[in-house]
Design a protein that fits this description.
Layout: E1 3-7, H1 11-22, E2 26-30, E3 42-45, H2 47-55, E4 65-67, E5 69-74, E6 80-85, E7 94-98, H3 99-111, E8 116-119, E9 124-128, E10 134-138, E11 145-149, E12 151-154, H4 161-165, E13 172-184, E14 194-200, E15 203-209, E16 215-223, H5 237-245, E17 247-256, E18 269-271, H6 274-277, H7 286-301, H8 307-336, H9 342-351, H10 355-361, H11 363-366, H12 371-374
Parallel strand pairs: 1-2, 1-12, 2-8, 5-14, 12-18
Antiparallel strand pairs: 3-7, 4-7, 5-6, 9-10, 10-11, 13-16, 13-17, 14-15, 15-16
Helix pairs in contact: 1-3, 1-7, 2-7, 7-8
Length: 379
């Protein structure tokens, strides 16, 4: 039975563990944090991600709330620009939830699988990529420990220790900062089924409920050199009211990395999630791409005698899709932050389109199914 060690117990690492275990691997997850705490804020899961989680037996439908659309608004006035459906073409749904709730249901699923071990407080401190197998060292309270495996999955985030030890470039600032808030929705506010986004010059805000009780996630993206609400606090009264009573969670500098999928050399080392391609939030696909990565990686490795070829196939499959998502992210960033009068032309173009045509723009993204990954291994 092949064995893998996974660096990182976030969304990417936990999903990778479940996907590999489902295909007969034994897995050891080694997480640098001493405790898995309820950190982060809201997260969006589109149909492509939910399809994978359902196949892995993750009870994601028991947390968060369903969403059916994104309502785009002019920031200063609150005027509705367009409504964009977020279900897939065949009607599969979309969920919004707290990141900690997603982590919790992933952990429940992991703890049910006997061939997965989870170890906390063990950062990756050394890695030998010159041998045909994995030889890695992890820190621990009793000193460093050595681990050998058939595969290392680097799922340790944008500041990946694995990437650093292998000499990959450091993450770079994107020029933007995310200001995150927690609030409680008022009874007369937008129905829970809608995600709202307010667009403005060089900044935008997003609001959505993350549970049935009315807990609400708010995020405001601002230039990195201006990490305050500034004019956003005087935008549309609905948004300003939510921000006025919201609890600040902190400011997150948004970082980027050049996509990397595997280590060159004989050691079978794969990157997934933010460690592979930090995804800025303009298309709400960071978690979804991490979940897809994990599943496709496991499919490529299924019954593969030559793991080097399997990892090259993983890269060949993921790089074009993630590249297309990154291009969409860059497009959203430009059009969301247009100043006037360019924003008026954008608003008119969107207003002239039907919701069905706007849905078709994202069909290539949301319609993806895990079947496409299953077909890789002939299962």
């Amino acid at each position: 039975m092949p064995d893998a060690v996974i660096a990182g117990a976030g969304i990417a690492g936990l999903t990778a563990a479940l996907a590999l275990a489902q295909r007969g691997w034994t897995v050891r997850i080694r997480e640098r944090a001493a405790r898995l705490e309820a950190v982060g804020a809201g997260i969006q899961l589109s149909p492509n991600a939910l399809d994978v989680l359902h196949r892995l037996g993750v009870a994601v439908d028991t947390v968060g709330v369903a969403a059916d659309s994104v309502v785009l608004r002019d920031g200063p006035t609150g005027r509705r620009i367009a409504t964009v459906p977020v279900s897939s073409t065949d009607g599969r749904g979309y969920r919004v939830l707290h990141r900690a709730d997603l982590q919790r249901v992933l952990l429940v699923a992991v703890h049910r699988v006997p061939q997965i071990e989870l170890h906390l407080g063990q950062p990756l401190v050394a890695l030998d990529a010159t041998a045909p197998g994995i030889q890695a060292e992890f820190g621990g309270p009793s000193g460093d420990l050595r681990d050998e495996a058939d595969l290392l999955v680097a799922a340790d985030g944008v500041r990946s220790d694995a990437a650093r030890l292998l000499g990959f470039p450091s993450p770079q600032p994107s020029g933007a900062t995310a200001l995150r808030f927690a609030a409680t929705a008022a009874p007369t506010d937008q129905p829970a089924a809608a995600i709202e986004a307010w667009l403005g010059a060089r900044r935008h805000a997003v609001r959505y409920r993350i549970d049935a009780a009315g807990a609400e996630n708010l995020v405001v993206i601002v230039p990195a050199g201006e990490p305050t609400l500034g004019a956003v606090s005087r935008w549309d009264a609905r948004l300003a009211g939510s921000l006025a009573q919201a609890r600040p969670l902190g400011a997150w500098p948004l970082l980027t990395v050049m996509p990397r999928w595997r280590a060159e050399g004989p050691a079978p080392i794969a990157f997934v999630g933010d460690a592979a391609h930090a995804m800025l939030p303009y298309a709400a696909q960071g978690a979804a791409m991490a979940i897809e990565d994990a599943f496709v990686l496991s499919a490529c490795l299924d019954d593969a005698a030559d793991r080097g070829s399997a990892l090259r196939r993983y890269e060949a499959l993921r790089a074009p899709r993630v590249g297309k998502v990154l291009a969409r992210v860059a497009f959203h960033r430009r059009v969301y932050h247009l100043p006037r009068p360019l924003s008026l032309a954008r608003d008119l173009a969107l207003a002239l389109r039907s919701p069905a045509s706007l849905r078709r723009d994202l069909a290539w993204l949301y319609d993806w199914r895990a079947d496409e990954a299953l077909a890789i291994s002939g299962n």
